[in-house]
Every structure is written in C-alpha cells, then in structure tokens.
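Look over this record before class:
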Amino acid sequence: MGSLTGILYQGLVPVFADVEPDTLNICPASEEADYRQTRAILAVHHSGLAAGMDALLGIGREHGIRLWKMRASLLLRLPGKLAGTMGTVSAFSLNHFKHITCGSGGVVLTDDDQLRYRASALPG
C-alpha cells in the first residue's frame, strides 16, 4: 500500500504488473505492454531481493520512460552498482519496521536537479 498510496495521492492511475514467483518483484516481461500513456515504471525491491533492474532500465530506455524505485533495499548490490543508485529516483522508507528507522518519513535519492527541487518543495 505504501507505494500505491503516493500514486493515488497524485491523482495518477496505476497499472499493475505481474510478479516473479521466486522474488515477488515486478516481472519485466509483464511490462511489455502498451506504453503510450505510461510515464514511469515503479519497481520495489521486495524483502532484500533485487528486481530485474537491467531489463527494467532497458524497457525504460526503449520507450522513454523513467524508472522509479520505492523501498530500495539498503546496500543491495547488483553487478557494479548499488540498487538504490539505479534509475531516476530511489526512495527509502524510515518507518519503525525498516532497516533504518526514524519512526516515520523517508529519503529520496536522485541525480536530476529538477526532480530534487520538486521533491524538496513537497510538504513533509
């Protein structure tokens, strides 16, 4: 629900994808759909297991779609990179049951100056 709530709060329409049975992460093959109205792919690294980032990034490049990650697993390493550094935006939850906890809140990572500015202007 945490990932879905933000989408709905912004008045966007989520389109659900299938999940991989062994990781419960988004199945990149299920994302091969009609992308005419797709603005972003939201990947969640579930239970410390990495989503198929190379395939998802490839789909994003091919269709001009940004890849956003929620609940990026802390220090989850993929070949050559930390999973939280891949894609346009990564977000980490700081709720009481997460790896890093502060009671509530979160952290957003991006190297896009415009998105960083827009995120910093949102009410906290």
User: Anything to note?
Assistant: The chain is about 25% helix and 20% strand. The first helix runs from residue 2 to 9.
